[in-house]
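Job type: complex structure
Entries:
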Amino acid sequence: MTLPISTELICFLVLASIVVIGGIGVVLLSNIVYSAFLLGGVFMAIAGLYLLLNASFVAAAQVLVYVGAVNVLILFAIMLVNKREDLAPIKGLQVRRFVSGLVCSGMLALLIRVVVKTPWAVPGPTAIGEEATERIGEHLFTDYLLPFELASVLLLMAMIGAIVLARRDVLLEDVGTGEPVDQALLEKVKTPVLTEKTTL
Amino acid sequence: MQGFTNGQIPIEAYLLLAAFLFCIGIWGLINSRNAVRVLMSIELMLNAVNINLMTFSSYIDGELIRGQVFAVFVITVAAAEAAVGLAILLSLYRNRVTVDMERFNLLRW
Amino acid sequence: MPEMGALLLSSSTISAPADLLNLGLNAGAVAPEGVVLVALLGTLIVDLAGEKSAARWAPPICYVSLTIALLLLVQQWNAPLEPSFLGSFLADKLAISFRGIVALSTLISLLISWRYAEQSGSPVGEYAAILLAATLGAMLLCGSTDLISVFISLETLSVASYLLAGYMKRDARSSEAALKYLLVGSAAAAVFLYGASLLYGISGTTNIKGIGLALITSPTPLAALALVFVLATVAFKIAAVPFHQWTPDVYEGSPTPVVAFLSVGSKAAGFALALRLLIGCFSAFDEQWKLLFTVLAVLSMALGNVVALAQTSMKRMLAYSSIGQAGFVMIGLVCGTEDGFAAMVLYMAAYLFMNLGAFACIILFSIRTGSDRIADYAGLYQKDPLITLGLSLCLLSLGGIPPMLGFFGKIYLFFAGWASHQYLLVVVGLVTSVISIYYYISVIKMMVVKEPQEASEIVKSYPDIQWQTLGIPALRFALVSCVLVTAVGGVFSNPLFRWANNAVAGTPLLQDSIAIANQQFLG
């Protein structure tokens, strides 16, 4: 085994084990802050895998967007809603976890079987390697122009929507009649649903 | 430019890793009681998809790398979805002061 | 770069992006969407000037742009068929019909939204902008022929829907509905993506047609798995049982005009996606997906209509009834014949008018009374004959009573199902139709038959009917026109039949599939 090959293999194994262990940690750790940091680690390891796959642009995008934006956003959210909350125990929780674990491992077994059995069309055309970034740009302005433009609408709308939902100021009166309003559904519930709030 | 050849690592290795990550994501989605953790599980699933796409792009479609473009779009959408999800979570937290999925039961499931 | 050029030359069979630069985009095909986009930006700009300005200017901008979009769609109807955006989009007659249904449903949903949004104190300009973004996504979804554009338009529609569901941000129910919708929807999107990535891995392309060809030459177990993943997401979008759990919650917690859009516009886009993916991409697995969809259709019709019997909230009842209605439409999908597809298109159009008419009535009722409980409708006919009449006609049409529009749509669906030997589906459809008539009629009975002293407290203290308030005239216009089309459309339904048949006849995708099915039948 030559040096480059074994280096690649070692890199893959290290990154893959970070992804696997980190992924398990994200869903299992009881402290959500640790989970969030582990998630950042998983994202970084996946970016490393992209580098192994010779896709430096997507690796950079992964680091910038996932680690730099999504993960930070998640940490912010945890800080904002981080009230010590003792979750009330639920009956049959362990059974549910176990059963869903069985279902998921069954699905994993199915996926593994299918992935191994399928005759993949490898080796495909030679990878273009470092010219990938240029090729992505060409794609974005030719055959994927429509989704590219639509993605900008999606981002604009997500931004506006997130601001509308998260900002605090509330319209105090009906524009049409000038009556007071409360930004709730018009169909009121007769029983006070928010009694839980006071008991916390 | 030095020609890069894949093949040292079999394609199945990447695909199995993605399948494993996807199943972890699903398990977390079902079992997490903290709404933020559910969002994290969804991010794990999307990353599993991205590993798949990047692998196919490199091994099967190395010349046109449509999978890389697809992955870039997935990353974009994931960011938008996370932002919207956290905005909704914040507005819900203001109303209910909890992030426990089991207590979001004003509407019957 | 010499290397790059050599590379392109060596692969002349695959058209590399650089070559494609010379080809035309044929971007005129998305002109209607362009108009919607301009309106989206317009509503945002008038909203900058304050809430009063938004309430004044956003409605006309939306009306004008959606009308222009509809006119452009009509103009496209007879235009020669060319793929646009280098194969990302195809404006065939099927796409045009469904885009028309989506645009019309947005127009009517907006007409019935204004008063509701203003009375609850929600920012109107942003509301319209987000709804228009959802429309944009749904319209592009109807014509997308590439997995990436399918995914992005699906997500535009979904993310906008999550935002709209949580728009009443001071109401815990609305936020909760939005969060549940977001979590389930994003999970469904991730599952769809996993299936899409497998399809890409099998075929090495993202074009739906290309994938379809690759699957025909080598139908592997992996492709069947991808089918299951993709199908689950499609079923989620059209709310087929057992992927329906989100529907009643989201419908109950969301603002009612949003529910009106979700139950028609979003669903129509879901069916267009189902047609494109299942027929264009999974034709190699024809028997398998038809079997799966038969099961989904039977479950949807049965569960949707039976559970609707037990509901006490009007919105929740309509949610379950919409699950049942989606089951009826699936009959046409499973048939796979010319009549089946035409019946699907026709029933979606009929469903647009009758469902939005019903929603206009319950929105008007909740604007006046602040309630959506079925019991509160008791004795309404003495206080508000218009709502009573409109709701009765729309519900009768949803139940399929002649001579309403819904009756003809349903009969056509059942006829198509019977003709292609889907006896189980037709029998289940007939039985569940009878059940649905029972609960629709019981609402009507509640409104009409009760004596004045039996009327509910809310109806007894019913406010004076006013038509001058801002936004109410638009609501009345939408209500009256939907009810008129529902009631009279049945008698004059010939143009609709012709339109639906034309739509199917002018769609190469569907024609190919029908031709293959006929060959198999003969051979």
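Summary: Chain C is about 75% helix and 0% strand. The beta strands of chain C are 83-84, 89-90.
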